[in-house]
């Protein structure tokens, strides 16, 4: 492979021969000197080619000067030349005096998107949109964040699983389910790895995690929904309650945010004007009933008949946690059984309450976690109570008939975490290629 | 959470109070003493409960003795008692004298699968099948392997991407494509992340990786095929040829195998009778034409009209690499253009050959890699030549119209690597929940 130097490493390199590769951001084709600003995944640098004069003092065309004249914005090339440190150069204090240019690919001169293009137009041209350093940074942050989570889990003896996304039947509700033509029959796309990550518990895996896609046939067009999203899941055995899940959950987030701050804190400050705060342990925990009182005392009445929060309620309780408790994160606990799925365990002594939580980050829910009901008789009753048919869930119920430990876990939307960390207006910005009801391309 | 000690850590723990959690492997309910072998994800230990005599010398029933008598195999429980080191105890040299048992869940007494159950029956009861230490070890190895790969990539500044599995059209061929009902229209499940990982190159991401599901509507029932599998993918910019891809590919495999050997070498030797060999760099590279001659000289004529290998040919060349070159891995290179997809770059000066390779491990192909054709005019010609319609691939072709670096990458089947590393008879053993034409459950 051509020994290219990453542009971010030029400032620390010695003056002398160097090779960089990237795409053309701007060309200034002047009379006496030509400039190209070249960008790679790590930064941008100025390439300089002084015009060459002939014996008669007239400018002479050279391979390099002709190539530069032909360069369109977005063209990819490798430049070799002499690196020179020069404090007067605003762009990184270095420039490269060109010896040669090797053009890999000339771009069409038109630029389909501009700085002020709308989000839909930008998604149409996502590969160009991602050249913007601010947009690419999102996925570098995501990489660092995920690796910190996985490293925590691996160091704590978790097993990584890959659960199938093709299922014979619905995992939870039949609404929002995509049907797949499967040979002569049908399959369905997993809405979450719920059943299969729970399966790891009677399998004796102890502690597991998974990062993978989940699918929801949700026709809504909010800023927070997608038909396909990356779900971050963990499930652990031998818990006493959801408190044990929350404890692990907050620890991985501290690990993730610490890694992000260490590696990208400065870039995030520069490009998003966001100061990454590593949360302190423990995160605040507020039972839902108390949270509703707090929200009411702030002058907001949640307009819902059930016992749930609504988005504005989440924002209000998050504002309270930030202002009064100094935390961007808050666990809301003790959700009512009426609004939780059948597999959430109910509180001993008060079955109207579940051993479950939502995690709110900067005003929006990013995760739901719970202790699971592992007693097959109680589980069967809860299935019936929710109007579901235990017969249809017989395969799932088998997991609980042959021995199973107490267990619990959470599922967390990856793009939501990124969106809320960086203050992005919607999920699309934090998704490599967004999928929605009217968006399947590119 | 209950402070449980992992059973593997008991030998190094001091005698005294201890708590372990797991499932019942055997019960020996004897007259003077009761024994339970308890297993968790890390090992097995013997629990001992001497019978208690009353003043009259008769055995008295206690909570503990009654509980043990009721225990069925597979029941999950937490045991507390006194840890005692005793060399005479064959199982790890320790035992726990029971103070109390807390049963989380009693198992149904029947055991649906036995040691000699067939693979299909075992898959029906996969959560019980995975309790077998040998089967669970596969996924611990996989966890270690994947983490080593990802760590290599993260340390080398790769960006992790999650490409969508829902697509508007076929990624490569229309055969083997699953159709999804998508609101009022159709979507298709990605057969590979090929197009979208390539998209990261004109996006300027430089180097990317992904580990995620891929789907093939392949009706075959071989030991090496599945309708859903985990694909390990990487794609890098600014390569000179497929050689640069192979270089990275072999380096990640060395990292992965070294980590597996370090962490699981002994257990793999014990449970699979396999000595993990960390491959040495570089792996042998054999052009296909030469490989065919070698195979022929070993007495095997490949019965194919095209220029491809067949499974027996792969076994033969692997045997040659093992015997003559001392390597379990071998790159076969220079595949003919006729049997490679349109997006493989062809050799400069000899378009009958592609800049591509297959990686053979222990006799079976685990991966295909290539330099991609990034020149849009050449690419368009190759699409036509393969009988495809450039119009239908217009969105993909856009990736190459606005500037793109030279690039290449590979896709590798995760379960295949595990299967071949451990000498498993088929892919199902190395898949958490296998999916095939007639297998969608559990």
From TrEMBL, chains A, B:
The keyword Aminoacyl-tRNA synthetase applies. GO terms for molecular function: ligase activity. It comes from the Bacteria. Keywords: Aminoacyl-tRNA synthetase, ATP-binding, Cytoplasm, Ligase, Nucleotide-binding, Protein biosynthesis. It is found in: Cytoplasm. ATP binds at residues 365, 413-416. Gene3D superfamilies: Bira Bifunctional Protein, Domain 2, Nucleic acid-binding proteins. PROSITE patterns: AA_TRNA_LIGASE_II. Its EC number is 6.1.1.12. Residues 139-442 form the Aminoacyl-transfer RNA synthetases class-II family profile domain. It is an enzyme of class 6 (ligase). Residues 194-197 are annotated as: Aspartate. Its main location: cytoplasm. It catalyses: tRNA(Asp) + L-aspartate + ATP = L-aspartyl-tRNA(Asp) + AMP + diphosphate. InterPro entries: Aa-tRNA-synt_II (IPR004364), aa-tRNA-synth_II (IPR006195), aa-tRNA-synth_II/BPL/LPL (IPR045864), Asp-tRNA_synthase_2 (IPR004523), Asp/Asn-tRNA-synth_IIb (IPR002312), NA-bd_OB-fold (IPR012340), NA-bd_OB_tRNA (IPR004365). Homodimer. Catalyzes the attachment of L-aspartate to tRNA(Asp) in a two-step reaction: L-aspartate is first activated by ATP to form Asp-AMP and then transferred to the acceptor end of tRNA(Asp). Belongs to the class-II aminoacyl-tRNA synthetase family. Type 2 subfamily. This is Aspartate--tRNA ligase. It comes from Frondihabitans cladoniiphilus.
């Amino acid at each position: 492979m051509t020994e290219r130097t990453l542009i971010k490493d030029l400032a620390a390199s010695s003056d002398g021969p160097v090779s960089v590769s990237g795409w053309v951001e701007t060309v200034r084709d002047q009379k006496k000197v030509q400039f190209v600003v070249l960008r790679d995944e790590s930064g941008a640098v100025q390439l300089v080619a002084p015009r060459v004069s002939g014996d008669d003092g007239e400018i002479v065309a050279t391979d390099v000067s002709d190539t530069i004249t032909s360069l369109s914005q977005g063209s990819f090339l490798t430049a070799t030349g002499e690196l020179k440190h020069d404090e007067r150069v605003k762009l990184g204090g270095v420039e490269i005096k060109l010896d040669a240019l090797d053009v890999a690919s000339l771009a069409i001169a038109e630029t389909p998107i501009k700085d002020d293009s709308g989000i839909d137009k930008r998604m149409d041209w996502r590969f160009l949109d991602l050249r913007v350093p601010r947009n690419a940074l999102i996925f570098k942050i995501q990489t660092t964040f995920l690796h910190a989570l996985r490293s925590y889990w691996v160091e704590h003896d978790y097993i990584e699983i890959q659960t199938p996304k093709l299922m014979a039947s619905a995992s939870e509700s039949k609404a929002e389910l995509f049907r797949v033509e499967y040979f002569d029959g049908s399959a369905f796309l997993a809405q979450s790895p719920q059943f299969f990550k729970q399966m790891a518990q009677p399998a004796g895996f102890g502690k597991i995690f998974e990062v993978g896609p989940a699918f929801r046939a949700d026709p809504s067009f909010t800023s927070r929904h997608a038909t396909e999203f990356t779900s971050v899941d963990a499930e652990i055995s031998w818990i006493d309650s959801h408190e044990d899940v929350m404890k692990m959950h907050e620890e991985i987030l501290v690990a993730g945010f610490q890694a992000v701050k260490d590696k990208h804190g400065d870039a995030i400050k520069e490009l998003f004007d966001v100061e990454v705060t590593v949360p302190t342990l423990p995160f605040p925990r507020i039972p839902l009933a108390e949270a509703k009182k707090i929200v009411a005392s702030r002058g907001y009445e949640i307009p819902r008949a059930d016992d749930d929060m609504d988005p504005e309620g989440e924002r209000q309780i998050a504002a309270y946690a930030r202002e009064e408790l100094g935390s961007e994160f808050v666990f809301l606990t003790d959700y009512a059984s009426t609004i939780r799925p059948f597999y959430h365990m109910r509180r001993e002594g008060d079955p109207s309450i579940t051993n479950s939580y939502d995690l709110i980050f900067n005003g929006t829910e990013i995760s739901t976690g719970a202790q699971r009901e592992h007693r097959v008789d109680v589980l069967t009753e809860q299935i019936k109570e929710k109007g579901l048919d235990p017969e249809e869930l017989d395969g799932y119920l088998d997991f609980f008939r042959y021995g199973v430990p107490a267990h619990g876990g959470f599922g967390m939307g990856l793009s939501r975490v990124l969106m809320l960390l960086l203050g992005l207006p919607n999920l699309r910005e934090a998704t490599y290629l967004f999928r929605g009801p009217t968006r399947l391309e590119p």
